[in-house]
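Before relying on records like the one below, remember that each one covers exactly one chain. Contacts with other chains, cofactors or solvent are not represented anywhere in the record.
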Amino acid sequence: MHAVSFCLTALVLFMMFGVTFSISVEEYYNFCKGKKNVKITTAKFFNNENINYEEFDSKQRSSNVIAIHANKKYYIKKFGGAVDITSRYQDKEEFFYYFLFQNLGVGPRTHFVHSKVKGSDRISQDDCLYIGTEGVDNIEFTSVITDSTDAARKDKVNAMNKFFEAVFNLYDIGHENTGLIKGEDQFVIIDFSVKTLQEFPGEQKRKKKMSSLTTKLSLPQLQHLRKYYLSIENRVPKAMDEAERTVENFAEQFPNAFLSPPVDLGHYKKIIKDLMNEFGNVVLSYIKQKEEESKGQTQQHQQERGRKTEPRVSPRGVSPDKNTNTSPSRGSSPKRSVSTTRGASPKRTTSNQSPEKKRDASPVRPRRGSSSKR
């Protein structure tokens, strides 16, 4: 009896004042989180074609259901809720980030999984929206790599996790949310959480955040990040533009799918750009400085090593100093030294005889007109 009177009262209020009743965020969240509704929505998304489901129990990932369609796995993740009957509680930024990482080649292919009629403004519990990501084959999760004995892969995956945390301002990554493709260095991020605009750092905090990378990571790890940073530096702006267009196009088709008032993705694009620039200014400069210091130390070490390895000569074979008079070695001819007086030319000797003996040995010529006979 009470239920009938309540319904009649609600009907009268609606007819007189246009009063409507809305479900709470918690009620909406619990409804959309239910695996039954996830499966119903997923079936509609795939046009009710043959779909198999697989349970996924993981503390690290928040996927509700694994749907298998055409031999491909789709991880269907609960997303958002409803505030009242005229607004939605869906955040554009997480969709934006998923498509951004897809465009950069580090994230899985992403889909909007929904059951809403295109162009309709009707709001009901059937309008749940989910993120659907395609499964990535041959991924070795961070948790597995960390427990392994491969130090090189540990360093790479840990460095990449730190990079995405700092440059894209993420959290809740690592463990079973990121990893490397088996046998390759390709980094993959399949799940994460995005900080709100209020949590994004200002200029001073950005510098501090980047400086912390130089203390937490080794020089080889930073050099690996530099290589990756330079490979995506010019691709990030285009990847962000494409991700923004994808999300905004969906928002135009389903105007009530996201939070009202809508989030300006331009703010997130600017913050990512600023963080990228800060990484280049702080971290790349630090790497260059350390490499120059290391190069200088290497050159100094080589010079010292060269001096230590010079061949030592025995005392008998030591070459004489220019200013030291030493006796000639056995079997060598003595060198003649000619002493000269300043301003006088040295006299030359052409034989071993002295000049006086030379004059005595010369014949005496007879005087003219004289005879030897008397």
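The radius of gyration is 45 Å.
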